[in-house]
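Internal ticket - ligand job 159, zinc ion:
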Amino acid sequence: MEIQAIALPTEVAERVWKTMNSPGYGHPASNALAKGHGPCRHCLRPFRIGEEERTLFTYSPFRENGMIPLPGPVFIHTERCERFQQPSGYPVELVAYGAVLDGYDGDQRMVAQRKVADGGHEAMIVEMFEDVAVRYVMVRDLKAGCFDFRVERKVDSDG
Ligand SMILES: [Zn+2]
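stdout (C-alpha cells):
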C-alpha cells in the first residue's frame, strides 16, 4: 500500500500571504524568524532555525462539510514557497522528527493513535491503514502537538 501526504492547500497559504489574517478566524497572522523546525505546512520542509522567516496563523485541518473544527497554530514560510508535491510516501525531510499519528474514521472519531520517532513513520502509517476503519491520519508534532499534515491511502490516478 502507498500513502500520500497532503499539505496545506495553496489557496489557504495565498490568503494568509495576501491578508496576513487567519482564514476563517480573522486573528492576525505574525511573522518571525524560525525558532523551531516547523515544518512549513505548505511545502512540508523543516525551517532553517534562525535563518528563515515563518508566518504563524490559526488553522483547522478539519475543513470538510459537517466536520467539527479543531483550530490550532500552524506555520508557513513567510516567503512564498511551492506546495509539497512528493507523489507518495512520508515527506522525506520530516522523517528525522518525532510524530504523533492520529487515525480517524469517517465520522471524525479518533480510532487509533501511535507515536513514532525512530524513522519508521511510513511503515507505521501503512500498518494503521490495514484497519479499514482508519480513513485518514493526522500527523502532529510529537513535542508541540501541533497539526503538521494529513495522510491518506494513495489512490491510483488512472484507476
Ligand atoms: Zn514552505
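Auto-summary: The longest strand covers residues 53-59. Residues 92-153 form one domain.
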